[in-house]
Amino acid sequence: MKKYIICLLILYSNVLLAQNKSNFIFEESIYTIEIQLENGKNFLELDKENKFQIITKNVEPVNMMCSGQNLKRGKLSADKNITNWSLTIIKEGLKNEEYTLSISFRGKKGKLFTHQFLLPVKQN
Description:
Structural class: alpha+beta
């Protein structure tokens, strides 16, 4: 019985970790967009400047558009698949303690893809 409880706890913790990571990754067909926060955490911080990178696979940055409240483009990266961004989150711009970051891009055959990342926000 103890073995089953331990296995269930491990399975449940892995599901929670996968769910948290999925807030930062979008995968569709051959296209991948991943958000990596500079602070190394799995949440954005309220009333502070949050810096992050958007890492793409098979997505041309010229065909990608990002939108969100107080979103600013950061320094240019040497790697064409990485774009740097920063934002300062205010409480009035949140829904259910989450920040909405919308990304749209055109695929290789001209198909339009859109995704809304719902990124968790915490106050430190």
